[in-house]
User: Fold these one by one.
Assistant:
Number 1:
Amino acid sequence: MTATASAPTYAGDLYSDEALREPYGRYRELRELGPAVWLERHQAYAVSRYADVRAVLADADTFRSANGIALNDAANQAILGCTLASDGDLHAHLRRVVAHRMTPRALRPLQEQVTELADTLVDELVARGSFDAVADLARALPLSVVPDFIGWPVEGREHLLRWAGANFDSFGPINERARRALPQCGEMAGFGAELVRTGNVLPGSLGAGVLEARDEGLITTEQAMMLMLDYLAPSLDTTISGVGSAIWLFASFPEQWDKVRADPTLIPNAVHEVLRLESPIRAFGRVVSRDTDIDGVPVPAGSRVVVLYASANRDERRFDRPDEFDVTRSDARVQLGFGYGEHHCAGQGLARMETEALLTALARSVTRFRLGEPVRALNNLIRAFGSLPVTVEVG
């Protein structure tokens, strides 16, 4: 595959260690180059401007997910047919099997449990004074909620974070991270298959509902295995990323934390602003089903497109002061960190609930976060911290 003559080109590697640590200058360069930019290194078109990203995500008939969300064939083949990597009627059917469990009404009974867990966790950490905002805070709450919600047995949960990270690493180009990840994705798939075979899931969980759908003939055994895994990695890593980024941003911009403490009703908007500025998922791919154009740039059928959510969310064409953190931003909620269109994140309600609960609990007593030395976790798709030492001041 080669670029069309009218497409601008970019020679850099968007998945190098340096690019993963400091991506935003590169994204700005892509936005300046044009609406669709040929990535020589990755043999794909990058779509980086907000309006174009939104338009691509809205047109699922032209920009297809099957065989397209990863930048390598091995990962695409491994996940073909799951909700992330399916289109049209199949995609809608698979989502219906589980989506009713993630509506605001369905999640409402979880609110009290999540709030209590967040309050207890924060009280313990604040009493300590110093802690790792990733290991002790951002990971702790999702790990106490998500596995039970999905229905995974206690045995095997020690692998969940490793498998979730590998899942996202596998979606990049075939670099060293993806090569390390693919065998671990195989382990995760094997575990999911064993759960479906044995039925060893928690009663009343999402997983139990998946098995019921399989038993009723609504889905196949293979689809049941895919659904058992589909919501695990996104429900863990994206929330962990968002909470870690929130603490980092509030430590870096304490005046924004003062605004939240003075008016806790800002917290839901603040969560959207965190996800806009530090989008947990950098990008997903698509495959073009027919000759088309992206804002005037011809893109032939069969091309791969890299949809850069993290760039769109900082597009100066859409957001005033796009690189500034502002919890009162009036249009923060239009951020694309949860996707858009038929592939929007089904689990975003739970992710927001967890993040808001933690920030609400922290806002009651913490006046300042003092940062230690942050360490980035390098992952092909997820932007997150591996470690974020903080000391809190209370008052």
Number 2:
Amino acid sequence: MHFTPRLSVNSLFWLTSLRDDEKGVTRRVWEDLPGVFAVEGLPAEMIEITSAIELHSALTELVRLANLGAKPMIHFDCHGSLERGLWLAASDEYMSWSELISLLRDINQACGNNLCVVSACCFSFEAVRFVDIHLTAPFGILIAPEGEVNAGFLEENMVAFYREMLALGDITSAMETRLKASFRMFHSEKMLAHVLTKYIDQGGMGRRLRERREALMKMAVPEEVELTKQTMAELRHLRDNMTKPTEDLIKRFIPGFLAGKAPAFTVKQLEDEVRKARAAGIPPGQF
């Protein structure tokens, strides 16, 4: 299944926290980047972060702006630790990935699952580990490195990535062209589709659904209990309606995980993906 991110951004917030001797790349990138956004009529703002409290305040302010109509794109320009999270150079503090996710979740809720985060911090794709399908997604899209990332790579590719993204209106293509060598993309709709496809495969269609339905009937009607044919037929009809995947399976996640944004896929498409995967002998959901 092909997923095309449906994001609409109207501003860039570049949050930076580096040592003085590391700011050269940022200065050179920032010489061009505001102009790239200005061509599209979009503001780009750099915010120097000097402490964890300042980072918390900056992200809280973005919640307020999102509630007023901002659709922000956030870029993190600092160091990262796999175990400890973002490192803020000025205060020598860390903000854990879990705390960062919690703050981003509030912003994404305010802008309707439209938040795009680009993180140049080493290991920052680790933040995905703290995404919970039962809570609001912390971002519509995250683009971040799993491991270490080279400053030269960032200088060579970051402005070009943003220029292509804005010119083409296609963040996936720009990421594939410019950042794929060191970065990965997380897409909240794709994660939900992956989870639901596995659910459908494990008990929502075909033989596994029939087995599940028979097990439910045995639980509901012990062998020693005799029911009329009409009652059994009514029970089976009720059981079938309760166990067959419908669009309600997706709708239940819209107000929560997707922050009110309906996804661009249907249950039928997910069922088709399961059938294709089974026919190809691969685990469903691997798209």
Number 3:
Amino acid sequence: MQQLRIITRPGSEAFLRFAFELARSQGRRRITCVHKANIHKMSDGLFRECFYTIATDYPELQADDILIDNLCMQLVTRPEAFDVLVLPNLFGDIVSDLCAGSVGGLGVAPGGNIGHGRAVFEAVHGSAPDIAGKGIANPTALLLSALQMLHFLHLHRHAQRIEEALRLTLASGIRTRDLGGNASTREFARAIISNLRPLDFTEEPYLPPAPEAVPQPVSTPSATAWQLYGMDVFVRSPEGIPSLPECLGKLRLRMISNRGTKVFPGSPPPILLVDWYRCRYLADEPLQHTDIVQALAELTNRGVLWMHVEKLHHVNGIALYSKAQGEE
């Protein structure tokens, strides 16, 4: 199996800008970019680059970065060292559960999915059909998610009123089973209601405007800056390292790898091989799209079971692929 991990500059810039604005609005002091740029040099490297570019607009915030594996260790040993974390989607999905576990479990972890003027708020955890109707579920995560929605609507005093009632309830020892108590869902909810202070109707909701239907700017080099220099063609070869022509027109075979490890040229290392090989062809001069098409046609005529192809480019003279792993 092979799956693409797509990180774009416009998406990163929009997401990171929101994170910095959120940190500023909440009076935070530090924001940390979490990544794996030491391995994913192109994709996570782009994410980190965008982070530090945007950080220059927020001099009052301390901006730094950390590798995802190091973060996980430090969140367990000294979580107080961090303030605001900003992560790509997969890392954030995993770390949010880790953080939830450190503060009482998924039953107390809220979540929000915030877009341009629109948002959906929900608990970090999924549904729990195995305890439906038993009166033992902890409603804290859903309640805190609703409070995030109130803040999104600028109903801050309403949110603070409910949050204070929740805090008083927990401090009094009324808790559901997952937090070490014996209160039912209904008993817990009634205790929160009893701790609510009088309602203030003076605060008006703020509805964010709908996003304008205009094309979003894309930060990317012009088309003339892109020059085609080769291809990675993925070949299925159940019999072992595929026998491929050394040259395909202007293209010359430079490397064959298996599961990220080079197996050609040179003697293949003593590793477990699968029947899926990445075969890299590069040229010494810029190519045309037709050169790739002709090369694939020759491979097909030779009976090569090629399954997938990725074109390799230089942009402004910089190769958009690594020499060893072939990351793009």
Number 4:
Amino acid sequence: MPEIMNVKEMVAYQQGAVVSKTLVEKETGTVTLFAFDVGQSLSEHTAPFDALAQVTEGRAEILIAGIPHLVGEGEMLVMPANKSHALKALTPFKMMLTMIRSQGKQPIK
């Protein structure tokens, strides 16, 4: 039976940490929730597939190929495949990250 879930309540903040919870893990993609304490970050890296970051709470700076993007609650940003990206929480910050493992069409701009 399908279950209705509250995305904001499914992952909790921990002081000085980044917490993640994988909701879907399939060969074709993943959906992962993240909670970042203020000032926590993900170091610069690349991924072979596009990733969609949907902000559910707080604010963060996401660098894509060295260009900063400020994102807040209710906003989303596509991090293109094979472009370096990094993230820093400006406030306590939660997001849902969806990665589809496909070489299909380019993301909507």
